[in-house]
User: What shape does this take?
Amino acid sequence: MAGADSAVLEVAGGHLTWTVWDIAADPVAVLDDLPAAQDWLWALYGEAAALRAASGEPLGPAVPALPGLARAARRLAYAHWAARWWPASVIDGIPPLDDRLLAAEIAELEQECELLTGGEEYEEYGEYEEYGTAEEYGDGGAATSPAGTPPRPDYALAAGPGASASARVLARGTAGTDWRRVPPGLLDASEQALSWEIVRSATRRTEVALSVVAGPGLTDRVPVPAQLLPRATLTAADGSTAEVPLRLTDDSWTGTAELPGAGPLAFTVHLPAFPDPPTPDDAAQRALRERVRALARARLAGAPSDIAPLRAERAAEQEY
Assistant: This one.
């Protein structure tokens, strides 16, 4: 599974990968059908590289025979990356990209890159393209932002969904979500998108109440297909778990479950249809997400880049 730092383009006979931090660099080519790839290798890497590949040698540095095609391929890979990993967040103030503008530009770039793709459209995310983002872990501590300030009160739980006035809040906090576990647009991409409370009711029942901010523009007035309804898994320190179906209410996904066990809780928000990522969500993944947010903010602020702003990014600049 390609991560949030990789822009990937499926091509005839394999795929090309750029890192979004240095997208001007040559792509890494992984070929599984060399005869099919020979139709475009010369155009993107140069004739000498294509001859080396035919002899089983490494491609070497790219010297494109068609520089315009190389630029279009890089831009198309970035556009697909933006469709999957753009960190839209009301909490963080990063506006979403207009789906229609982005889809239109991708379609145009696909036509320009037909030599690479063999005329086949790139459909890595299929039915999930219209939605997106994540999961993560809570530590049982107080709710604070990365800078140590309280999270935005309009997106924190006040007393927990369904909590009565007589309920006692035992603990509360915030967490983020693992973007690899859900499609784009489904959840807010902030590291404070998930709010949780452990509540003890007057009947001594102890429950966990969750609220996850929905992706910008996603509300309960827009029906979400059943296969795109997320769930949360609560894991206690003793290994016991509880599954929490989430329902969309206004602009948040909410749910409650009985406290599964003692000790700190870990929270995972996921879509059942999505495969488990190869590595757990940890400090490195959270740092990667923050780097993606920094990239998005820089592009919205007009920072120089080897990829000129997409039309959808230019539209988003007006809201930034």
In short: Confidence is low (pLDDT under 50) at residues 120-163.
